[in-house]
Amino acid sequence: MKSTESAPDGPASFSGEDNEQWELRLYVAGRTTKSVTAFNNLKSLCEEHLQGRYSIEVIDLLEKPQLAAGDQIVAIPTVVRKLPEPLCRLVGDLRDTEKALVGLQLIPRRSVGG
């Protein structure tokens, strides 16, 4: 079952600026199938929608568990959008492309989920 969700409903800041840099963190626990899938899906989304304007930092919580507290990570894999603001989190492997795009605020929220 997919477990993609999004956090804040704050003001929309869709990727309207072509030079806007995106900083993303992907929290994983080891090199599991779900972790690899999440990374591949995130990279694919970024290549399609943010080509040349993003960075992905992968944080393995098996190696650095202390980093989970800083971004309030309670499930893995989790993607944290650090920039542009507002900060947001997505939990899951991002296989549902539309939900991932909405959760990262790359497209406006609309008919997702009814």
UniProtKB/TrEMBL annotation:
InterPro entries, per database record: KaiB-like (IPR039022), KaiB_domain (IPR011649), Thioredoxin-like_sf (IPR036249)
What domain of life is recorded for the organism?
Bacteria
| UniProt cross-references to Gene3D superfamilies, sorted A to Z | Glutaredoxin (3.40.30.10)
Q: Where is the KaiB domain?
A: 25-106
Sorted alphabetically, which Pfam families does this protein's record hold? KaiB
The Gene Ontology biological process annotation of the record reads: rhythmic process
Q: What is this protein called?
A: Circadian clock protein KaiB
Organism of this sequence? Roseimaritima ulvae
Q: What is the lineage of its organism?
A: Bacteria, Pseudomonadati, Planctomycetota, Planctomycetia, Pirellulales
